[in-house]
Amino acid sequence: MAFSPALARLIDAFRVLPGVGAKSAQRMAFHLLQGERAGGAKLATALAEAVEHIQHCQRCRMFTESDYCEICRNERRDATRVCVVESPADVMALEQNTDFRGHYFVLMGRLSPIDGIGPEELGLNILRARLADGPVEELILAVGATVEGEATAQYVAELAERYGASVTRIAQGVPVGGELEYVDAGTLSQAFSGRRPL
Amino acid sequence: MAFSPALARLIDAFRVLPGVGAKSAQRMAFHLLQGERAGGAKLATALAEAVEHIQHCQRCRMFTESDYCEICRNERRDATRVCVVESPADVMALEQNTDFRGHYFVLMGRLSPIDGIGPEELGLNILRARLADGPVEELILAVGATVEGEATAQYVAELAERYGASVTRIAQGVPVGGELEYVDAGTLSQAFSGRRPL
């Protein structure tokens, strides 16, 4: 099927992207070659630069090409509030949808001893150093409500409390706009027991 | 939202791909940075090389990094049979699913005067030169059964007949595995009037 070795290599290389199989990879390659060569060249440059230069922020583990990410370097942000999330995508989502202007700490995963992911792999030694170092007044847990997320939340909460930070967790309950009838049993039971005075 | 200018550039660059919006672009960028840096670097290289070197075959207009594509250069293929298709993806599909071992001619589009796409834009002067040049015994039309595809087929057929090639067209009818009940009216009427003796 190799009409052109360069084309075959390009189609094959596209399959590294999440959710991209043989058909989509071919479609992407032809799309770029047919009318988006400038865009393709731009993507090649951005990609080469990103995989070479983007590392983890030494303070919060977010992606950055500097030693510290823009949030950690921004002195107008409140360093006494640290929001702990599982992934860089979570940081993006919170920045876009909340007015939180503190700092983050990105675990890049969650505790999963069965996969060999312990506190070390999640950079919790860095978080510990930070808790020891400066005053963290509130540590906000914004990890997923999965089994591993719960275990991670528990672990981080104990760590933070040891250093005198007060720990909060983002609310669990019925999604906004959700009809009770279609909410799953676990969420409904959580939401009911977590009811609050109006 | 720029935590890292390099990351912002990468996410933006991914949006050139077909069907990739802001969310998918972000997912692709994080996926590569989190665990597929080698694959990302390979993609960057393949892409840079492809947009720089891949051109159209001078004989059939298929993508190739040489002057002539591998099919046109392959002397074991039958140059007296030329299959005319709309796009490089059609060549791939026919190669994968048929035993056709002749040559191709890729229009890279179809006649559409309203969009300024005439015979010149489809490289029909190249096809004409080829018909004049060597003996083409059978010209197979494998263009889509759309209005513009029909117009294109008509035009190419007349051109080929002028040079003495016999013209065939791939069959239209009920798809294999299709139930009559769910076949659209146009296809069913075509299939019925195009019935063949068993």
UniProtKB/TrEMBL annotation, chains A, B:
Keywords: DNA damage, DNA recombination, DNA repair, Metal-binding, Zinc, Zinc-finger. One of its GO terms (molecular function) is zinc ion binding. A zinc finger (C4-type) spans 57-72. Residues 80-175 form the Toprim domain. May play a role in DNA repair. It seems to be involved in an RecBC-independent recombinational process of DNA repair. It may act with RecF and RecO. Belongs to the RecR family. This is Recombination protein RecR. It comes from Salinisphaera japonica YTM-1. The lineage of its organism: Bacteria, Pseudomonadati, Pseudomonadota, Gammaproteobacteria, Salinisphaerales.
